[in-house]
């Protein structure tokens, strides 16, 4: 639940999601659920030459099980908050 609550705070921010098939999609985070399924709006493919068929896709739903990485905006990462939350979760409370 740690990352779910963290991602909820990033709704409305631009993120890049890299999938397990090497496709990287950048867009505005519209929603995320407890399984880390992600809905992006105003999407664009990072490597447009490799994936030209994705140029017309503007909104997409990404199943959490196919996500390899999520690149967050640099100003959207609060390291102290993540450290505290990780310690609390490790202690079980």
Automatic annotation (TrEMBL):
KW rRNA-binding (keyword) present: no
Positions of the Sm domain: 2-76
UniProt-annotated location(s): Nucleus
Main localisation: nucleus
PROSITE patterns cross-referenced by the UniProt entry: SM (PS52002)
Residue stretches in coiled coil: none
A molecular-function term among this protein's GO annotations: RNA binding
BP-aspect Gene Ontology terms: mRNA splicing, via spliceosome
Short name of any one Pfam family annotated for the protein: LSM
UniProt keywords, alphabetically: mRNA processing, mRNA splicing, Nucleus, Ribonucleoprotein, RNA-binding, Spliceosome
SUPFAM superfamilies in the cross-refs: Sm-like ribonucleoproteins (SSF50182)
GO annotation, cellular component aspect: catalytic step 2 spliceosome; Lsm1-7-Pat1 complex; P-body; precatalytic spliceosome; U4/U6 x U5 tri-snRNP complex; U6 snRNP
Record function comment: Component of LSM protein complexes, which are involved in RNA processing.
UniProt record similarity statement: Belongs to the snRNP Sm proteins family.
Name of this chain's protein: Sm-like protein LSM2
Native source species: Kalanchoe fedtschenkoi
């Amino acid at each position: 639940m740690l990352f779910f609550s963290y991602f909820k705070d990033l709704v409305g921010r631009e993120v890049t999601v890299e999938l397990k098939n090497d496709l990287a999609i950048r867009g505005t985070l519209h929603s995320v659920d407890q399984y880390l399924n992600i809905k992006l709006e105003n999407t664009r493919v990072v490597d447009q030459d490799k994936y030209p068929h994705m140029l017309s896709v503007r909104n997409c739903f990404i199943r959490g099980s196919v996500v390899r990485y999520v690149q967050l905006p640099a100003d959207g990462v609060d390291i102290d908050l993540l450290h505290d939350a990780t310690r609390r979760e490790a202690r079980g409370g």
